[in-house]
């Protein structure tokens, strides 16, 4: 299976990239780089892809396991190298679950399945960055 994405220059430092879903995303540089900061930054978008990919896995498993979760978010904190080409060399991925009836064991299992088995973006990140995975439970 192949993905074909078209990314079209909109002028200045802005681009619009399509997606097989039919939606588009605007990419732009910050004002310090000659852009108008009217879109997502490419490297940051990679972190959104990582969190989104794993988040979809975990959300699907929450539903399948019929787990009670009031809130779920993923924080990604990445270190960017100083030298060019600047890239992420380490990434912390924090899974935050909030609720009054959290099944920590099953939620951890859902995270582990995503991290170790299902998430293709996570596998791509492993090729160039050290990953630190954390699961944090917030009981109401």
TrEMBL record:
InterPro entries given in the database record: KH_dom-like_a/b, OsmC/Ohr_fam, OsmC/Ohrsf
SUPFAM superfamilies: OsmC-like (SSF82784)
UniProt cross-references to Pfam families, sorted A to Z: OsmC
Name of the protein: OsmC family protein
């Amino acid at each position: 299976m192949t993905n074909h994405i078209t990314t079209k220059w909109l002028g200045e430092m802005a681009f619009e990239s399509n997606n097989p879903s039919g939606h588009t995303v605007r990419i732009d540089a910050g004002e310090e780089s000659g852009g108008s900061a009217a879109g997502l930054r490419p490297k940051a978008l990679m972190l959104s892809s990582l969190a989104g990919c794993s988040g979809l896995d975990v959300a699907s498993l929450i539903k399948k396991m019929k787990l009670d979760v009031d809130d779920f978010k993923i924080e990604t904190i990445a270190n960017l190298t100083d030298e060019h080409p600047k890239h992420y060399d380490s990434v912390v991925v924090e899974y935050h679950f909030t609720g009054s009836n959290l099944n920590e064991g099953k939620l951890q299992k859902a995270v582990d399945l995503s991290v170790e088995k299902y998430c293709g973006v996570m596998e791509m990140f492993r090729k160039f960055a050290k990953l630190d995975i954390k699961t944090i439970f917030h009981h109401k």
